[in-house]
UniProtKB/TrEMBL annotation:
This is PKD domain-containing protein. It comes from the Bacteria. InterPro entries: Ig-like_fold, PKD/Chitinase_dom, PKD_dom, PKD_dom_sf. Residues 21-76 form the PKD domain. CDD domains: PKD. It comes from Massilia solisilvae. Gene3D superfamilies: Immunoglobulins.
Length: 228
């Protein structure tokens, strides 16, 4: 894995950099930093023992002790056929009940072994947006029809159980862009009244009723079917 590092400020004195990687499976390594023309790259390699969604963390520390950290979710597939991928899109204002005026990056990651019964170990969905950190606990249904992939199930938000979700990916095959569109909807039921409360839905400011492109166009990344 490789990550670009920021260039030092003009006129700054020479300094050294140290990169440390945390792979999300309990393993940690010291990486290599290559510098050129005032910038640089940190690189390292790691073999994961099992399929899954992992959060990889890179921490770069300079010789004065100042450090910066970046994270990225990655999906690791095993033998068989998987629906897998990760990426980000720009979450529109009003999508998150926890931060209604916020517009910013939302990240997603999906991993599902399509050749076996669904289980927590073989089907996972993770999603992060303003005020929301969602982790699936159970996948109730998944479907693949043409250019559409959909997951429905249950999970927790910010560590609290009792939430439901739907994630739908549609590939744009009409305009020739080949881009993915992703819609994420998360909700729960109010205690007592059992009224549905929508916690997140990026369809709110989408191009509905154009159902072929529900949600938001993916800025980077994709969800694809992979076979090994």
């Amino acid at each position: 894995m490789r990550s670009k590092l920021p260039a030092p400020a003009a006129g700054s004195v020479a300094y050294t950099l140290k990169a440390s990687w945390s792979w999300g499976d309990g393993s940690k390594d010291v990486g290599t930093i290559s510098e050129k023309d005032g910038g640089g790259y940190a690189s390292a390699q790691h073999a994961f023992a099992a399929p899954g969604i992992y959060t990889v963390t890179l921490t770069v520390t300079d010789s004065s002790g100042v450090s910066t950290t970046v994270q990225k979710k990655i999906t690791v597939v095993g033998t068989g056929t998987y629906v897998a991928g990760e990426g980000w899109f720009m979450s529109p204002p009003g999508a998150s009940r926890m931060a209604r005026t916020h517009a910013g990056i939302a990240t997603f990651a999906v991993l599902s072994n399509t050749g076996s019964a669904l289980s927590a170990a073989q089907a996972n969905v993770e999603f992060t947006a303003a005020g929301i950190n969602f982790r699936s606990q159970q996948i109730d249904a998944q479907s693949m029809q043409g250019d559409s992939v959909q997951f429905r199930g249950r999970g927790n938000v910010n560590g609290t159980d009792g939430y439901y979700f739907m994630l739908n990916r549609v590939r744009d095959t009409t305009s020739g862009s080949g881009k993915d569109w992703v819609r994420v909807r998360i909700w729960h039921y109010a205690p007592g009244s059992q009224a549905e409360v929508v916690d997140y839905d990026n369809q709110l400011n989408s191009r509905a009723p154009d159902t072929d492109r529900q949600g938001t166009v993916v800025g980077e990344g994709a969800i694809t079917i992979q076979s090994n």
